[in-house]
Amino acid sequence: MIQIAPSILSADFTRLGADLDAIQTADMVHLDVMDGAFVPNISYGVPICKAVDKNTDMFLDTHLMIEKPVRYIESFAQTGADQISVHLEADGPRGIADALAEMERCGVKKAVALRPITSPQAILPYVEELDMVLVMTVEPGFGGQSFMMHQLDTIRQCRAIIDRYNPNCLLEVDGGINLETAPLVKEAGANVLVAGSGIYGAQNRAAAIQALREA
Ligand code: DX5
Ligand code: ZN
Question: Which of 12, 134, 160, 163 has the most neighbouring CB atoms within 10 Å?
């Protein structure tokens, strides 16, 4: 089963309620939090995440693109996040382990994210306790970028590690997902597809969600 996770980074923030209503048929809402340090862009933080939680009953998939995320796990758990992803490049191994422990304590699902530069092997120390692995298929920081074809290999290698050590763990891909790239990432083993511009750039968002699911 393929799950679709629209990213509200490409939504109209003056009509967030309507833009959440428009994606009701998706499986979760993807929230991109950027700090201007881990990535060169600043997106939004706790208040917007709380506003989303207030406006929808959907599962909230919060992608933290911030340095030393352990500092903010509790704050984002309190925004109603159901799952949090932290970047493996955002802290040392101790900091990542502590961030995952903090997620456990706060009762949110646990995920780690990989920048395109990061080896799939980097998930090995954590994979058995994870609910999801997020493979970036663009350099994190901005919506609307082109899919990096070489990341198909990273997806395949993460799929092999997950199948071996924790088959229930989901494999999410994020960046440049559209009707051309969706079949490629599915074939490589992804089962959760994030899409920002691919969904919010369409006139009919429900149709775009369905099309990505079936692509
Ligand atoms: C990029 C974010 C993505 C972004 C995807 O740093 O993590 O979630 O919103 O946008 P598209 O689908 O437009 O590439
Ligand atoms: Zn994201």
Answer: 134
